[in-house]
Structures are given as C-alpha cells and as structure tokens.
Amino acid sequence: MPVFDRILWYHFPMLTLYNDLTNKKEVFEPLDPPRVTMYNCGPTVYHYAHIGNLRSFVFADTLRRALESNGYTVDQVINITDVGHLTGDTNDTGADKIEAQAKRENKTAEEIAQFYTDAFLCDLDHLGIDRNTIRFPMATAHIDQQIELIEQLEKKGVTYATDDGIYFDTSAAENYPKLGTIQASGLQAGARVEENKQKRQPADFALWKFSKTKTQQSEKRLQEWNSPWGVGFPGWHLECSAMAIQYLGETIDIHTGGIDLEFPHHANEIAQSECATGKPFARYWLHSEHLNLKGAKMAKSDGNIITLQDLIQDGIHPLSYRYWLLTAHYRSPITFDPEAVLGTQRALERLKTQLDQLPQKDTEGNTKTDTVVPEAYLIKITEAINDDLDTPTLTALIWETLKDTELTGIAERYTVEYILDLLGIDLADFSGRESIGITELPPEVAELAQERENARASKDFDRADKLRADIKQAGYEIHDTETGPEFTHV
Ligand code: AMP
Ligand code: ZN
Q1: N or C: which end of the chain has fewer CB within 10 A?
Q2: 279, β-bridge pairs
Q3: Which ligand approaches the C-alpha of residue 262 most closely?
Q4: Given this model, what pLDDT does residue 477 score?
Q5: Contact 221, 96 (CB under 8 A)
C-alpha cells in the first residue's frame, strides 16, 4: 500500500496530525521510523460497545491505514478495561462497572469481561478492522505491572494514603494537567461536592483503591488483589500507563481515545507515567469527537445507546456505518441519523455495481495500484489523508474519480479501490439491502403494494399478509419502515 516511492519526493505531502498536546497541526515524525507505536484507549467491557464507542476504533484504524500508506509499520495496542472503571470516574467514586454488571447478570466478573470482549472483537471484524494486527492486553492480567508503577511513584514521593486508597499528588506533576485544562478548571470549581475530604487537591486521583475502607466494611469484591498497601484494585488510569509502557516503551509515538478521555483520564496517564519514568509519555495525542443521539452524547451509562447488532438488524451493513462516519472529519461531532446511513448504503451499492462494470486489467495485464493509479490522483489522495485524515475529501474524491472522463476504466477502478482501501471499506462481500422506492417498482407490483397499504389502513391484516405474499411471488420483499414501505429484490 505505501505510495511513498510513487510520488516524487518534492510533491509528497507530509503527514500532519492535530496534536492535542500542543493544540496545533504538526508534521508527524516517529521516534524510531519506520516503526510507529500507537496506543488506543479501549473499551470497558461491561456491556456491548455502542456505535459511538466504535467511532473511536474506526478512527484509530483509519489512522493506522494512513500511517501505513506513508510507509510506516504500526505497533498497535488497544487495552481491555476489565477492572477499576468506576461509575464516578472523574473523582474515583461509585461502583466498579464490571462488578455491578456481574451482579446484575449473576455471573463472575471474568465471565462478563470475556463475553463483552468477544462481542467487541466481533464488532471490529464487522467494521473491517484487522484484529490480528493489534494487541489487546487486559487490565486484570497486568496487576503486577500496575503495582510496580505505584511503587516507582511512591519512591519519587508523589503518592499519599487516604482511608480509601493510595492517591497521586497532582501538585507534584509538572504542568498538570497537560490535557483538558478547561475541564480541569471545572473540577476545581466543583470541588465543594468532593466526597473524599482527605484528598489534597480535587484533581488527585486513585492509584490503588482498598476493597474495605476503615469506615466502610464494603461487601467482598469479586476482583481484588494483595498489594503492599492492602487488599484492593488498581485505579482506572493506571492500567493504560502500565500496559503502554510494557508493550510500547516509556515514550510512545501516538496515543488516542474519544474526546471525553482528554481529562481526567489522559491528563492523569501523562502525569503518572512522566513522574515514574522522567520521560515524555506520548508525543502525539489525538482525540476523536463524539457520536451524539438526539442531541446528547451516546453513553452506556445513560442507556441511550445503539449497538452494531442493532444496526445490522435494521438492515444497515457495518461498512455503511463506517463509510458514513468517515464522511465527517474525526474532530467533528456527529449526530446519528439512520436515514443518512441508509442513504450512504444505497450509494455504496451503486458504487459496487459501477466498479463491477469496470475492467480488471489494462492492456499489459497490470492490476496493481502502484502502476495503474495516476500520479495526479495519488497526490490528491495523499494530500487529503495526510492533512490530519481529511476523510470527507477522500469520500468526495471517489465520486469525482468516477466522473473524470479523462481516466481509463482501469485507472478509475484502481483509484477508487485505493481510496476505499485507505478508508477500510472492502466492498468484495458487501451487499447492503438495496432498497427500491415504491415509484421504482413495476406498475403491477406498485399497485399490489398500494392495495396492501389500504388493507393495513383498514386493519385487514389477513388481506395485507396475502398481498405481501403476492408481492414476494412477483420478486419483491417488503420492509415496513417509519417512513413507509421499502422494497428489496427477493
Ligand atoms: P468506554 O468503553 O466507555 O471506556 O469507551 C471506549 C471509547 O469510546 C473511549 O475512547 C471513549 O472516549 C469513546 N466514546 C465513549 N462514548 C462515545 C461517543 N458517544 N462517541 C464517540 N466516542 C465515544
Ligand atoms: Zn486509557
């Protein structure tokens, strides 16, 4: 896939990424090229991932593809949070999400974590994300590393004990918080409602929480471990520092997550990692914006969620969803709109039909992207992807390519396929539900459909069912939607 050697170096647009650490677009240069180390904050596996969560992984995968097209090899880690993520995650209070779900489902914490991890990996498969190229370490499998990190911090004198755990003293961290200063000032302002009165600063966070506090003999936890400080479990932020350092090194190139993780999660990862190692933790911090639903952030804890399986059941192919996401820039919030995604799906169906009609080989039998895609297009494509992942321009470029009368069929085919590959859209097995509007039906079928609508309106459901069968006999399946019936070929 690298196009590096196809474009003359003085034409080659450098890869620039918006770095939230410096609040500007910067030319990307890894520490040790061609290797790029990338850590993406992963899911808390107490429930199915929702399609908002999945936006952050589609973003990470698109970034990986951009890096690879620039000739880099990517060492990618996505952690699985299976302990320590509390419902009150901004101030380390509340129930552990995994434990609470285990109780609700009457299962062990491990069973919950395993079940939802498997579901998550399955979602990644559906979205065209190659899980075999990624490592997925689990927090509970790295308790020793997390305890060691706390010991390192303890030696530096930046921790202290309260009745409910061991805390990190944020006043000891240089320039705290390095991310999310606005949200941090909000925490300062809200400090009066802080529950743990023993904390020195409102932003101080738990590294280790005790299962039983001195004042509160809480129920025995499902997941708890011995530590030099007492039986308990690691704080939520700690796992990411410990596992990023273990798998990718003390200084990593890229760290990503959804925008809500900027503060406190990422600010705290930076503070504890840099205090422990004395080195910069991650060099480029990228955050993807939220997916909203009816004006509010889609969130598991608020119950306003849609899963990928919900989409599939509604006839939306996961790749239609991926493509729709990429028609927006990753730094723009978007609102989920099923009609818009279905519109995207129809466009992809038409695209597949068009591509199938284009030749596969040129007169010399060349089929490869690097010999067939015109240089002018390679430059346009690289300019877009290298401009902080300008995927909206890339999606528009697909349709532009197909309209370009100067291009040969083979050039059109491979230019479009090259863009689709960068976007992670493989249309080989794509068959969305190709909807046909009532006006596009043959007149005799449209008439039957109208009769069925009348039968339904007068609540004559037997007749409606009979008409549905007749319509099927004529080769069309009916799908009743909020906006009226839609049809597909049987
Ligand atoms: P969680 O499973 O809650 O730990 O979150 C996994 C990832 O999804 C994190 O990177 C979050 O920032 C991200 N995320 C959570 N909610 C949304 C949303 N509504 N839209 C986009 N990303 C989200
Ligand atoms: Zn994290």
Answers
A1: C
A2: none
A3: 1
A4: 80
A5: yes
